[in-house]
Design goal:
The chain has helices at about 1-15, 30-35, 35-45, 105-110, 145-165, 175-185, 210-220, 225-230, 240-250, 255-260, 265-270, 280-290, 295-310, 320-325, 355-365, 385, 390-409; strands at about 50-55, 60-65, 80-85, 115, 170-175, 195-200, 235, 295, 345, 370-375. The protein is of the alpha/beta class. The strands form 2 sheets. Strands 1-2-4-3-5-6-9-10 form an 8-stranded mixed sheet, sandwiched between helices. It has a two-stranded antiparallel ribbon with strand order 7-8. Helix 5 (about 145-165) packs across helix 6 (about 175-185). Bound molecules: 2-acetamido-2-deoxy-beta-D-glucopyranose (2 copies). One 2-acetamido-2-deoxy-beta-D-glucopyranose binds next to loops. One 2-acetamido-2-deoxy-beta-D-glucopyranose binds near residues 98, 99, 282 and 389.
């Protein structure tokens, strides 16, 4: 009986494969699935806006904005801006899923900020390029290097142009911290456009990453080879009904399995076997919005960092590197270019990706030690920096206090 149930489930999952997006067998996820961040912002009564920004290499980035708080009615007052940038396989929805009482985007709006949320090229809101179709492999030929130098810079410029401000606050989670260091080291003039930067679970040096997924795959994909050439520049884990249906089958119908389901999302973070502090409400909303898609090259680039212990550009193999970089190994990002004033690091012991050793090493490479907040909760995981039940007290209130302090000085 059990075997039969298992087989049956397997068949259902296959039948609703990611390629059958408009599958009529679904349980009615589409409505939730098609909602944008703007829709979700407005559901809570806040004003929401959608902005499109074209990068220098023709990707069209979607940004969402909570320009002010309806609770403050502060639309005519001066409002400092803040840019929130999500992690790998995530999207702007991540910043609002915990709702108005806990989610950073709403709390910042209620504190008087003009809140902008970015979306990296290739995710569900930024699958567009005016010259390239998403079906063309060249569309996916980018890593977080390009997201940093082209997407984040374009987003910052758009915010400053729209609002007339000269600088903005920045909050990044995971890959949202990597792209910050890429941009600020490669195009140092952007340092001046940042007031304070809050780097949650900073992923820059990765040699001491703890995730078991990486440990077992590093031999195969840690360096460029035939295998990685087969799998690079591909779309991975796109936002389709596939995962939503798996979640639906397993989690909504059987409360005993619900416990496992919330950890499905930490799995995307490579936190296999870790128990996140996310509650089921947030977990359900995660299922409606995640995973949000990325290029496989982003993952391969991270695996190279793990293997090499360096923070450097993508390794194409000796011959290609010579052509591209004029040297046989990829160049390091120059951390001397980072302005350490106003930098805040937030990190934890249970984080499987940003190990405390690597975060502290990064801090030591900067010309001045940033503000370091080592989360005292020993169960705090990589995803908890955005979705923990305690994210407000532990992280968000601290970010807002630091931004307020800057604005008052
Ligand atoms: C789960 O989190 C949501 C959003 O933060 C909150 O509204 C809800 O009360 C929480 N539920 C439980 C059971 O803790
Ligand atoms: C891509 O962006 C361009 C420019 O904003 C727009 O004209 C076009 O309709 C978009 N394409 C898709 C498929 O959304």
């Amino acid at each position: 009986m059990r075997t039969y149930a298992l087989l049956n489930t397997l068949l259902i999952v296959i039948a609703r494969s990611p390629f059958i997006i408009g599958n009529p067998l679904n349980y009615g996820w589409e409505d939730e699935f098609l909602k944008t961040t703007e829709d979700r912002i407005k559901e809570h009564g806040y004003p929401g806006e959608t902005h499109r920004v074209e990068t220098i290499d023709n990707y069209v980035i979607t940004m969402f904005r909570i320009p002010y708080s309806h609770k403050l009615n502060n639309q005519n007052e001066k409002r400092p801006t803040v840019l929130l940038q999500h992690g790998l396989l995530s999207c702007s929805d991540g910043w609002i899923l915990s709702g108005p009482n806990d989610a950073l985007a709403f709390l910042l709006a209620d504190a008087g900020y003009d809140v902008w949320m970015g979306n990296a090229r290739g995710n569900r809101y930024s699958r567009n390029n005016t010259r390239l179709s998403t079906l063309h492999p060249y569309f996916w030929r980018f890593s977080w290097h390009e997201i940093g130098i082209n997407d984040i810079s374009a987003m910052i410029d758009h915010i400053l142009q729209t609002t007339g401000e000269t600088a903005t606050h920045y909050v990044g989670h995971s890959q949202g911290t990597t792209v910050y260091f890429v941009l600020m080291s490669s195009r140092p003039e952007y340092n001046e456009k940042i007031k304070t930067a809050h780097l949650l679970a900073p992923v820059v040096f990765m040699g001491n990453m703890k995730t078991v997924l990486a440990k077992y795959t590093r031999r195969f994909i840690g360096r460029p080879n035939q295998l990685t050439r087969m799998f690079d520049t591909m779309e991975i884990l796109p936002s389709t009904l596939f995962f939503k249906n798996i979640y639906d089958i397993y989690c909504m119908k059987d409360p005993k399995l619900a416990y496992m389901c919330k950890n499905l999302f930490t799995l995307y973070n490579g936190e296999l076997g870790r128990d996140s502090n996310m509650n089921m409400t947030v977990s359900d909303r995660m299922n409606e919005t995640h995973p949000a898609g990325a290029s496989s090259t982003q993952v391969l680039h991270y695996m190279q960092e793990y293997e090499s212990g360096r923070f450097c550009q993508l390794d194409f193999g000796q011959k290609e590197n010579l052509k591209k970089y004029g040297q046989s190994t990829p160049p390091d990002y120059n951390l001397a270019n980072i302005d350490p004033d106003g930098l805040h690091f937030y990190y934890s012991d249970e984080d499987q990706l940003a190990s405390e050793i690597d975060v502290e090493y990064l801090a030591a490479q900067l010309s001045k030690e940033p503000n370091m907040f080592h989360v005292p909760d020993p169960t705090f995981t990589h995803s908890d920096f955005v979705w923990s039940n305690h994210v407000k007290e532990m992280i968000n209130d601290r970010i807002i206090n630091a931004c307020n302090l800057y604005e008052q000085s």
